[in-house]
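User: Can you recover a sequence for this backbone? Please restate the input before giving your answer.

Assistant: Of course. Working from this structure:
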């Protein structure tokens, strides 16, 4: 029998956060400012991640196992882990005698959710679920006005959730939401479903129709658009869902006997219409005027809150944060004698029933991973491609195989691989090794017997520390392992971003042009590439390893988002602000041509490129404005290119910097004009070595380039 560790109103509730990922940061920010709560520890299987997050929030305790938390005095655990771990970890938390506050969804089926509800009752431990959209500020205002009787008796709810999905654009198809066909319901649709449940109760009848489906990888289907009709205990509902939409629209409208209320959840606005005594012609005018007045008031409130927070004179009040804040604080207030929490165990079970109803008939498990043959030893002349399942890498692998070369592809996961990798791996032409840059033993296995390594897996990060760890240190370690394994040639794929291309730079930038001498003034990606090049060179020094640094230009083609940052700053996905006037020819290059150059370098006889840097840029007569206008013509999208002086852009960046400094934002650095000038690509690039030594002939005819590299988005 677990000891009674329930919170009491007389002393602070001891809390631990489990899972040191993105969402845990929000929990900790709120918890550390919640009265009556003391955060005792951060727990994660990766101790280093747990320590980093604990340190960032001033928390002393760190753990790697749930079983360690009771001895630390923990009473309530916040579970911020992937959804497929919610049930087993919640069960363990409750059995250990601690309460659980779980990120949505509680479970992936209603039966498991009901089991956890019963376990909460039998152990006497509190259980809540973070259905934060129930606490969305505009939704709460709608509920209050509905409960006040403003529109009479509720009869129907209408919802539209049309949202972009960043992981789709980035082709990160290994994310949990894509692993099984019904997962998207529990990842995204659970937000409006929790609100619908709050309004009309548990589902009684639901009909879901899938309007469109796409195949992400062979056998991996993703359902993009849905329409749903349903009946709840207290009313009916219709729902439109579009996951991966180019335009965001999140609305919830309730119809009553005497009026309607509509919440715009994206803009945090609320408008209503009610019956009045006037004739129709005057009522129509008043209805529009009232709606405009309500929307203007909400718009001013949102803007004022943003300005106050940005200037450091007010708290953060954006809708997402307020929903998270109020949800977490309401749960802890309920533990200390406050009102019952709105998303308790029974509510969580019924929300899961709604999710089940939408996903009925869809597979609950991921498509089985292909059974690849054992990798075996490297073959004669084997070429290893790191990052071979990526945008450029798949094309490198395909072209090497077409030349009859023996190829090994190192991959982090055997699931969700593109067909260019799966098919040759299944028939034995491609050797697969499961490993990653940080896996010393796995990389040693992948490099054993390798003749040439093409290194495309440089990664990235949101901080300079992450860039250093993955891009710089990772590349250094790969180089050292290549030296130890006796690899003959390493081709490190960098970027022209490591060079300086401002208006006062050299007239032409050729293969011998050195790195930007003031690279530390540049943004993180450019800096990371430059430092990684140095790390590779240093690690290969005094060895027999032949290093080639390849620097592609603005790589375009099927498989990368059309909103390429080489064109400009995409203020919205249809508005591109130029790095200057947009009247200079860009250093464009077709992705297939980059792959061809890398393949030629990999199979090159002799050492003509040993120790050399090679630019991979075509001379295509296209400007940023040209490309955006062409995209607009052939996609049907309302795309716009906005030329802007670099000086004006810098002035605006300084303005944003001043506002952030006034608001005492941490980690704010003065905007680099040097980086902005370099993004303008003022000077042409020459690629003489690749043309002469590799006989590289990139696509440069304007019309053909547009057809193969730009119009693919139509």
């Amino acid at each position: 029998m677990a000891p009674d560790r329930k919170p009491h109103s007389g002393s602070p509730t001891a809390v631990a956060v489990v899972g040191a990922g993105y969402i845990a940061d929000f929990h900790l920010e709120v918890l550390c400012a919640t009265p009556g709560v003391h955060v005792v520890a951060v727990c994660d299987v990766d101790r280093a991640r747990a320590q980093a997050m604990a340190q960032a929030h001033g928390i002393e305790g760190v753990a790697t196992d749930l079983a360690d938390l009771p001895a630390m005095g923990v009473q309530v655990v916040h579970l911020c882990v992937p959804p497929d771990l919610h049930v087993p970890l919640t069960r363990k938390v409750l059995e250990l005698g601690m309460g659980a506050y779980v990120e949505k969804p509680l479970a992936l089926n209603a039966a498991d959710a009901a089991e956890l509800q019963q376990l909460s009752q039998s152990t006497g431990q509190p259980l809540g679920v973070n259905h934060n959209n129930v606490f969305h500020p505009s939704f709460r205002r709608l509920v209050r006005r509905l409960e006040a009787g403003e529109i009479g008796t509720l009869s129907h709810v209408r919802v539209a959730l049309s949202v972009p999905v960043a992981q789709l654009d980035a082709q990160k198809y290994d994310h949990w939401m894509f692993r099984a066909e019904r997962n998207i319901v529990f990842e995204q649709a659970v937000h409006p479903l929790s609100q619908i449940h709050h309004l009309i109760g548990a589902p009684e009848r639901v009909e879901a129709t899938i309007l469109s489906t796409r195949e992400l990888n062979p056998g991996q289907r993703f359902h993009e658009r849905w329409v749903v009709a349903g009946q709840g205990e207290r009313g009916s509902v219709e729902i439109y869902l579009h996951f991966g939409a180019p335009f965001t629209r999140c609305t919830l409208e309730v119809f009553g006997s005497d009026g309607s209320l509509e919440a715009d959840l994206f803009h945090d606005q609320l408008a209503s219409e009610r019956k009045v005594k006037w004739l129709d012609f005057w009522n129509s005018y008043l209805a529009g005027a009232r709606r405009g007045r309500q929307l203007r008031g909400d718009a001013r409130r949102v803007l004022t809150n943003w300005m106050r927070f940005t200037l450091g004179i007010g708290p953060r009040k954006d809708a997402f944060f307020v929903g998270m804040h109020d949800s977490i604080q309401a749960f802890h207030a309920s533990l200390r004698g406050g009102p019952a929490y709105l998303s308790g165990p029974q509510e969580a079970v019924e929300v899961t029933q709604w999710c089940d109803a939408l996903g009925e008939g869809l597979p609950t498990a991921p498509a089985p991973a292909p059974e690849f043959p054992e990798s075996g030893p490297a073959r004669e002349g084997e070429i290893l491609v790191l990052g071979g399942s990526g945008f450029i890498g798949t094309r490198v692998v395909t072209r090497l195989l077409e030349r009859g070369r023996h190829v090994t592809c190192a991959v982090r996961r055997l699931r969700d691989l593109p067909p260019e990798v799966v098919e040759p791996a299944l028939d034995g032409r491609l050797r697969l090794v499961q490993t990653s840059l940080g896996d010393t033993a796995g990389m040693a296995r992948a490099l054993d017997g390798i003749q040439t390594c093409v290194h495309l897996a440089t990664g990235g990060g949101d901080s300079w520390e992450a860039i250093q760890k993955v891009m710089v240190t990772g590349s250094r370690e790969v180089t050292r392992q290549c030296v130890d394994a006796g690899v003959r040639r390493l081709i490190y794929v960098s970027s022209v971003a490591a060079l300086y291309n401002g208006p006062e730079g050299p007239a032409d930038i050729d293969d011998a042009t050195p790195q930007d001498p003031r690279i530390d003034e540049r943004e993180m990606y450019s800096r990371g590439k430059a430092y990684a090049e140095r790390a590779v060179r240093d690690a290969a020094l005094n060895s027999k390893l032949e290093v080639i640094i390849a620097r592609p230009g603005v790589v375009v083609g099927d498989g990368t988002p059309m909103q390429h940052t080489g064109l400009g700053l995409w203020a919205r996905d249809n508005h591109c602000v130029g790095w200057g006037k947009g009247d200079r020819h860009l250093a464009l290059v077709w992705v297939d041509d980059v792959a061809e150059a890398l393949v030629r370098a990999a199979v090159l006889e002799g050492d003509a490129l040993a120790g050399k840097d090679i630019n991979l840029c075509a001379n295509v007569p296209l400007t940023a404005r040209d490309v955006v206008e062409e995209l607009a013509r052939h996609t049907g999208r309302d795309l716009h290119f906005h030329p802007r002086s670099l000086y004006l852009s810098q002035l605006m960046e300084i303005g944003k910097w001043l506002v952030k400094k006034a608001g005492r934002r941490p980690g704010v650095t003065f905007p680099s004009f040097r980086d902005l000038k370099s993004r303008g690509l003022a000077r042409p690039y020459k690629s003489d070595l690749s043309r002469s030594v590799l006989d590289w002939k990139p696509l440069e005819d304007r019309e053909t380039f547009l057809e193969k590299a730009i119009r693919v988005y139509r």
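That completes the design. The longest helix spans residues 280-310.
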